[in-house]
# Entry
Amino acid sequence: MLVSLLYTAIMNRLVQLPVILIKEAKYFVAYSPALELSTSGKTEEQAKKRFSEVVNIFFEEVEEKGTLNEVLTELGWQKVNSSWSPPQVISHMEQEVRLPHLV
# Structure
């Protein structure tokens, strides 16, 4: 399920970041394929809050290490002029797969 887009500051610019929220047993997991980051919470709101915190820590760390351009490029982000754009989710689907027989 694709939840509403979160916003994050990158070099003083706002970027729409795709975030997927899923329910795993008793927990909610927030995941962004654009950053390959995830976190969880006991509630949907807690997972969203924790995800925002994780994103902020992520950007603080890569900026502190001086690897922001390298990391975003490796994650498939595009830099046009001086603005970064994350990879876009163009489709979200469910696909039926056959599981192997488990004993």
Confidence is low (pLDDT under 50) at residues 1-7. Residues 18 and 89 are 7 Å apart (CA to CA). The chain is about 30% helix and 30% strand. The beta strands are 6-10, 13-17, 20-24, 27-32, 37-41, 78-80, 83-85.
